[in-house]
Amino acid sequence: xxxxxxxxxxxWVPPIRGEALDSWLEAYARRLAVTGGEFTRFIGLTxxxxxxxxxRLTSAELDALSRRTGLDSAVxxxxxxxxxxxPVVVINPQDRTMNRPPAWRHYGSxxxxxxxxxxxxxxxxxxxxxxPWSFACxxxxxxxxxxxxxxxxxxxxxxxxxxxxxxPGTCLHATGTGRAIRCGHHLADTPTPKLQPSGAVLAAQCAxxxxxxxxxxxxxxxxxxxxxxxxxxxLRGIHHLPSAPPIVGDILDECGGSPPALxxxxxxxxxxxxxxxxxxxxxxxxxxxxACDEVFAWLGSTDRPRASGRDYATQKIYEWxxxxxxxxTRMLKAADGEVTLIARLRHGTATPAPSWPDLSDDDVxxxxxxxxxxxxxxxxxxxxxxxxxxxxxxxxxxxASLMLVPGTTWDYRPAASLLGNTSPKSNRRSLDAALSAAGxxxxxxxxPALARALDAHPAPIDYHRRRTLFTPxxxxxxxxxxxxxxxxYGWPHHTPVRxxxxxxxxxxxxxxxxxxxxxxxxxxxxxxxxxxxxxxxQLLHDQAAANLRAHDIAEPMTWEPxxxxxxxxxxxxxxxxxxxxxxxxxxxxxxxxxxxxxxLDLDENQLLLAVESFGITAPQPVQQQPSAxxxxxxxxxxxxxxxxxxxxxxxxxxxxxxxxxxxxxxSTVRHAxxxxxxxxxxxxPAGYLEQTVTRAWLEQExxxxxxxxxxxxxxxGTRNDAIMxxxxxxxxxKHPTGQHNNPFAQLNVAMSPAMxxxxxxxxxxxxxxxxxxxxEHPTLQASARTLGVNWGVLNYQLKQxxxxxGFTIIDIGRSRPxxxxxxxxxxxxxxxxxxxxxxxxxx
Length: 843
Hints:
This protein has 843 residues and is mainly α. The protein is 48% helix and 1% strand. The strands form three sheets. A two-stranded antiparallel sheet has the order 1-2. The chain is elongated, with a radius of gyration of 49 Å. The termini are far apart.
């Protein structure tokens, strides 16, 4: 309240606690012995109505009331419904009319009342009586009244058009033909049921006051929606009392009997219906109440009538969505035993927190990018029943596809297609075979939890990108590294089938799944991987890392979600139950998969999943063949010990060069070196060639001089492919198409531009030899007879050389003999000198 001013009314009437604004204005007018309309006009509010002011005050109304009565603007605002706008009531911002509230059909344009409160407070009305959630008076433990018992209408709080002040606590409803005639019933005499002090109705009103009316927020609106939906279901089933729990009858008796049957439009419009529905809704959501589950189950049985063919569990639960997630979660939990596996996964009914699907298609694709096409081996170990005859690859593909179902509206087929599992029927058959052995409970509990954890955590691998980039045909496999490994271990390296298998496994390592669909998964892959040599296993990892680097992908090679992502109890144990050291020890002996599984007390499928998860293989040991009886034939020729030592140690020839000289394989040369006790030279370390030569030198020799890569390789004592790798790495231009190697490059002499151009053409040595011979004869025919070729060939070769040089060398014309031009003489002298140097260098 402000200080006294000249504008302030000298008589002060304070509002009571919780009073509505229109009630306070009416009490102020009675104190001044005027009507409500006269009072509002007196304070300067000519065209206003207290029935609208109690909903929301305009700035002019707020200023006039505060200035003339001395009441603070915050107190005045608290006496209106403005703070309840949205969560509890809905006020039109333009004309302050009341629209349909979020719950019930009590709009707030009229007020309920407590007769005892009106008697004690001398006809003053509470603001909360206008709210649809107010149905009981906690001070006097009475059910609120909606209508005057005399006229049968809701009593108005004020009547601005009256001719005289109204007596407090009377019904001001206009009756008869004249508006000045009022009902006049003393509302304090209205009968209403007395509520039990510790009963469910008063407890429900206290819960509503605390959870909904105390703080008008989004949370309170959600709680109100939950109670409202349940309360409406109560009122719909209230007339089926034979099936109702006993507490329903107790609440009906407490409220004065069963309420009248109302239409859907009038459902819950009065305090009697609201009290019964809300009390039972509060009990159904209070897990500490002894009748909670019983009432909730009864509410679930009061289903809305639906068309035939749609009476299934999820359709029933769909009708409960407006009640909010808590109610839906309880309904889904209760329906777990009635729905299919797809529905259990979609809603997570077997998990601690079931929910209705709320993920978009983009969310599904984002989860799919975190998933390989086959479930990770350690998780498949947990989910695959022991002793099943299911195809493991198909089971893993089916599980990966099913992980796209939780929280979405996707079915199995589009989910499988997104991961590239284009044979869903075969996958489902493998899944059905596994489920027939152990049921669906484990999958229904683990897969939704794992899918939600995958959504909540970042994954270090983008499997969608890998599925786009890598196939057995597109992966890069280093055949040189593989052949070097074969030579080291004495394996045959001309094995296309084995190379195809290795490329397939390389793609599998990058994809985290078998390439292709389940129906095309080869039958050999399990045995091939199980018997894979550790050196080949490491080679595949190195090649996979090289493929990732080639695409600038900075991701780990493999990854699996950790088991601690799922905290719910009952998660089956994974490969950690297998003694890894014992597995490696037994696998080193090369037993069969069945034998190794028996030694470790595992199912064979579990063993193969553990082997894949740990990266341990069981290659068969190499059996040493005994020497054949009889005398060994001594090595001869280039492989004789003294000759081999001379070639390998003194001349420093490579094994491949000795093999070519002796006409045998490299492995034979290697065995001959071992027999002669000749130490094999160690391979040059990585990067050795780059440290030996410079880019400028290689560009000079290869690009400018035109030397061939084999020629340079022979000079450096290395392979041709090593030279070409440096050419590619250093971006040195390769020899253009149609340009040949310069045969004079090894002479290391300067050449004229014309000679340099001719030296890069095809068959240049023969043409130059013919050209120098032609210059010594009077005619082409004479030189052709000497050289033993057709004169047309000589003519063609001469024209080709002249086209390359850009000038005439020999003028054949019609004159006799042939004439050598001045530029041609210099060119022919240079050619003769180079040919002579080349022949002497060869000798």
